[in-house]
Amino acid sequence: MIRSMTGFGKADCELAGKRITIEIRSLNSRQLDISIKLPAAYREKEALLRNHIASKLIRGKIDVTISIDLVDSADQVSFINKAAIKHYLDELKKTTKELNIKGNDPWEMMKIALRMPDTLTYYQTGPDKKEWNTIYEGFLNAVERADKYRSEEGEAMKSDLQNRISAIETSLKAIERFEGMRIETIRARLDQRLNEFLSVNNIDKNRFEQEIIFYLEKLDITEEKVRLKNHIDYLKDTLNGEEASGKKLGFISQEMGREINTIGSKANEFNIQKLVVQMKDDLEKIKEQLLNIL
Predict the structure, then answer these.
(1) From 2.60.410.10, 3.30.230.10, 3.40.50.460, 3.40.50.1820, which CATH number describes the 7-72+127-150 domain?
(2) What pTM was computed for the model?
(3) CA distances from 39 to 10, 121, 129 (A)
(4) What are 27-51's pLDDT values in tens digits?
């Protein structure tokens, strides 16, 4: 079973005088990168949340936001940072003067200053055990929903990957139709070039046949086709396995790319080259998808 690294989970908690919203968003990343935004009252719980996310979501760029909407402000304490407001007002006045901006409405400037960071702070007294248990349960639900989202997204990705893999298999089988024609074309080209530069009477036919056989062996793509087919089968088995890893699938796709490139460099036949280009295109789309698999 494959899972995407893209996911989203949300949970809401209703408490006395408060509404808690928990959101978890994840995107693809080479490693685990967790960012948690918490109200100051819950900051001490960050390690607990971080450990659970690491064990459950494993990898990706994960943003967690826990926000509070206060319905009743009875347990809320407010603080006005006068020094910060004065600093912002001074800077605004200086800037308007330097830029020759007309208008100096004190209230308008005050509203702008109050939107700046650290001018007005609202915070709550720390949560009691019962309150935290409710919030943590909501957090666990949000993580589960994000993980479920990842699984559903993974199934959609798997379907697309299977179609791309089938397309590469079809192109690989189609190469066989042109291989006989390819050999005859190469042989005829060599005969023509040889006759253009050498007298037929001076040619050692046995030596000539040996050289052609040696040259055609260098251009033989049978081994590359067999290896590519083995890599395709391995990719499909891994994709359908219980623990499908994006990194492992990525390594297999790299090996497929090497074989496809070698077939292309040896092909010397237009129709085979067209099939190689199509296989490369499908493989690139597979690689793009694999970057987002857990």
Answers:
(1) 3.30.230.10
(2) 0.70
(3) 17, 11, 16
(4) 999 899 999 998 877 888 999 999 9
